[in-house]
Amino acid sequence: MYTQMLTVRRLEEVANAMYKEKIVRGFCHLYTGQEAVCVGIHSAMKPHDHLITAYRCHGWSYLMGIPPIEILAELAGRESGCQRGKGGSMHMYCKGFYGGNGIVGAQVPLGAGVGLALKNEAKGNVCIALYGDGAANQGQIFEAYNIACLWRLPVIFICENNEYGMGTQMHRSSCSIEYYARGVPLPGLYVDGMDVCAMRNAAQFAIDFVQKEGPMIIEAHTYRYYGHSMSDPGTSYRSRDEITQMRSTRDAISNFRERAIGKELLTEEECKKMDADIKKELREAGEKVKKDKEIKPEELWADVYMDNKEVGIRDTVGNFHKHFRVGKTLEKDHIKLKSFKSDLSLTPKDIPIEIQESEAQLAAIKEAQKKAATKEKSKNKEKKK
Ligand SMILES: Cc1ncc(C[n+]2csc(CCOP(=O)(O)OP(=O)(O)O)c2C)c(N)n1
Ligand SMILES: [Mg+2]
């Protein structure tokens, strides 16, 4: 758990540096400060458990099985990225890990849906759906609680309360900051999210509980050290003192290190060596990624859906893009509802109307281009004459 927490922290340091060098473009939300939440929960999860989170997802991507070098490559938009550079910071996925979601709160009902699939599969696994204090007041969160409770879905709803939603402090956005108690009749646990052992214990309890009793909530009280995203210095709505205070008294990594050394599970030297090795490995990964290339433009519309039922991609008017797959396929591994049968026998008459329209438009465009070319030819002929 110590190496994992350090890896998450150093990974974000490399991401931060790559962003400042303009190698990472677009969005980038760092998880620094919150490492105990992901590492503690992950250490209690079974390999067949599933998870979905919001956009602060680099740490989770690593823990769910994406190698750090593929995460850095994804951030840099390179071909060797876990999504071939097309997802970027907020959209990373692997077996049992459904991202990486940029729409605040949207991952919570999705997580309940994954829970429904798992219940149908009846293999005794659970889905964990994480969201922030900033998402906790949305209607869809309560709708997801409700249906998950009615259907006794094996879902753990985890509110990562880092005290801020962008620049808004929790007291200003929520009339009750007891996020663990807001899902009545769902039971809730309040946990120190800066303590990796507490997070592990809570997750162990919850994984067992939700399989037997249905969903529950965990509030992980944590803190983010950097601003909301790379474009936010993070000091206009909170004081530098507050951040320094958190880092020096509640830091998950240094507190765990002291505890482990105190109990003679680790030595100071071992800790230093682990840190140096991880730093070196990640720095080298960052350098390697910079030399990688981006995908070719025609791959932009590949891998749009996994089980696509339509031959063409809707609304790509004028450019009739077909579904095709280039990236790694997860098809064999993903969960399928028992009642769900994908339609593999599509015949032309089954092609949805939008695509037929699009085909007709494409034909019209081709016709117009042909006409224009003939006109151009005859013009040139005239000129020559
Ligand atoms: C539906 C929706 N509304 C607004 C936004 C803009 N937005 C991005 S992050 C954010 C704050 C979320 O805060 P929180 O859930 O506490 O997560 P944290 O950033 O603290 O991890 C908002 C409002 C969005 N992405 N999606
Ligand atoms: Mg927050």
Topology:
Elements lengths: L1 H19 L14 H10 L5 E3 L5 H6 L4 H8 L31 H15 L5 E6 L6 H12 L4 E7 L2 E2 L2 E2 H4 L14 E5 L3 H18 L2 E6 L18 H10 L2 H11 L5 H23 L62 H32 L1
Parallel strand pairs: 1-2, 2-3, 3-7, 6-7
Antiparallel strand pairs: 4-5
The protein binds thiamine diphosphate and magnesium ion.
The site of thiamine diphosphate has 13 residues, from strand 4.
3D architecture notes:
- The protein is α/β, with parallel strands linked by helices and 385 residues long.
- The protein has two domains: 2-290, 3-Layer(aba) Sandwich (Rossmann fold); 297-384, no CATH class.
- The protein has twelve helices and seven strands.
- A five-stranded parallel beta sheet has the order 1-2-3-7-6, with helices on both faces. The chain has a two-stranded antiparallel sheet with strand order 4-5.
- Helix 1 (2-20) runs parallel beside helix 11, helix 2 (35-44) packs across helix 8 (196-213) and helix 4 crosses helix 11 (268-290).
- It is globular, with a radius of gyration of 25 Å.
- The termini are far apart.
- Bound molecules: thiamine diphosphate and magnesium ion.
- Residues 132-134, 162, 164-165 line the site of magnesium ion.
Summary keywords:
binds thiamine diphosphate; 12 helices; 8% strand; five-stranded parallel β-sheet; binds magnesium ion; Rossmann fold; alpha/beta; 385 residues
